[in-house]
């Protein structure tokens, strides 16, 4: 952990799996993020209206309504009961993320993610210090604050400042000065707080975190016995505390990463030269001995959300 | 995680401190956000909401800023407000009458598109819309008011002869011409903005204002006798005394015209007062 004798992060994986293999999920994620942007843009750009609207609410192929459940809940906190279409849209989105992992939104859809990832990349390049690291729970306080502010002002309060919808709506409908919010997030992550926005502050992330607390799709450190302590997964994970209980667990501890904080970005899978990690479902009970134990005790079915 | 265990009291102390810090930070953030949200609620007078929009306080709780109404408006009337460019709350739909007015579509696609009901689905007849109310704000520059026959605002009105009429008045300047004064009738005006858009002056003399600016309000307790009389067919109170009307004439303040009545009592100094 201290002596920097090892290769730079990810080099080992590139050697064993090739560049593509060591960036598979990263590439897929970038493609997904771009696709989610483009699908909203081909309408205004080319007049091809597969999807209308934006991330707060949309209509796909003129039949499928989707609504951001957090935005709608703020409206309800502000004492407005929406029409059926919006409720149905929020239900579809809510159930989907509850199944595939709430923070899949963060790593595969949210347009701010490339921004904060970029800030983190530069942060590392410049060898900047960690900076201010508020508790991870801060985002839940933020989420509570957002609902309180909505109730208090009778408005959908977070939408006045939400950099996510500002950016996405801005790109699709015209951005005005909303890019200043995006720059602010970038600078915050670069100079003030490493992984600060998505890891500690963003109430949207916190909401989807809670939403996906019991999700089916999970990453597992099933081959944890093979871990050679290169620490690359910790280096790339935006929520590195989620890895420890799974990777360092002993035979009876589940190898599943069960924390809702995990964004299912799959970067740990990419970067591990030993192929310790995989995507799986939360009821996967394959035996997974810890390091140094070769007796394969089946792990008990997991139910608790690891902190 | 692997750090040596600290004494329990220290842990609790730290926990309380951290919690207090997070709570305080979020309280500050929340206050700022609330203040900002409060400020941002003010809607500039030129920004008109789409047909069927709920009253502004409810609208900001209802509209999720998805822009589906914007997409389904065939005339590109509606736009979503951009931060720092348009005055309306960021991302909410509005239109500016002088740019592109609402064409008052019969099927009201914008309302149909709205998933939340921020545009009230109860609005099925576009003539019932109340996006604002046109007001002839400048009676000194309006060409009709000057005695010319422009009539454009009247001609373009989709609710012509109901929402806007031309009232014939005497032209006191020339002494022998008429003035055809455009007069808006709030009950029928939808606030579509066609008149404002079409006003031929470089700056429109007729403008659509939000209802809150365009209209006064009669006190709750006011009863318009003539309306009640019409409704009732007779005075509401039996044996109501019809007091003499104050007509100009001798015995009143106005001595010029005939037909006045004698004052009920004389002033003690013998004069008639002034
Ligand atoms: S934490 Fe917030 S900003 Fe970051 S990726 Fe998730 S939703 Fe987007
Ligand atoms: S009624 Fe028609 S023109 Fe007017 S805002 Fe709606 S869609 Fe646009
Ligand atoms: S469709 Fe409704 S919710 Fe969406 S922007 Fe228009 S008014 Fe707001
Ligand atoms: S805004 Fe003007 S054009 Fe539209 S209904 Fe009112 S008077 Fe007629």
From TrEMBL, chain A:
The chain crosses the membrane at residues 34-51, 80-100, 140-158, 170-192. The keyword Ligase does not apply. Residues 297-307 have a biased composition (Polar residues). One of its GO terms (cellular component) is plasma membrane. GO terms for molecular function: 4 iron, 4 sulfur cluster binding; metal ion binding. The keyword Repeat applies. Residues 284-307 are annotated as: Disordered. InterPro entries: 4Fe4S_Fe-S-bd (IPR017896), 4Fe4S_Fe_S_CS (IPR017900), Electron_Trans/Redox (IPR051684), NapH_MauN (IPR011886). Gene3D superfamilies: 3.30.70.20. Residues 218-248, 253-282 form the 4Fe-4S ferredoxin-type domain. Keywords: 4Fe-4S, Electron transport, Iron, Iron-sulfur, Membrane, Metal-binding, Repeat, Transmembrane, Transmembrane helix, Transport. PANTHER family: FERREDOXIN-TYPE PROTEIN NAPH. This is Quinol dehydrogenase ferredoxin subunit NapH. It comes from Pseudothioclava arenosa. The lineage of its organism: Bacteria, Pseudomonadati, Pseudomonadota, Alphaproteobacteria, Rhodobacterales.
UniProtKB/TrEMBL annotation, chain B:
The keyword Hydrolase does not apply. It comes from the Bacteria. Residues 53-83, 133-169, 180-211 form the 4Fe-4S ferredoxin-type domain. PROSITE patterns: 4FE4S_FER_1, 4FE4S_FER_2, TAT. Keywords: 4Fe-4S, Electron transport, Iron, Iron-sulfur, Metal-binding, Repeat, Transport. Gene3D superfamilies: 3.30.70.20. GO terms for molecular function: 4 iron, 4 sulfur cluster binding; metal ion binding. PANTHER family: DIMETHYLSULFOXIDE REDUCTASE CHAIN B, OXIDOREDUCTASE. This is Ferredoxin-type protein NapG.
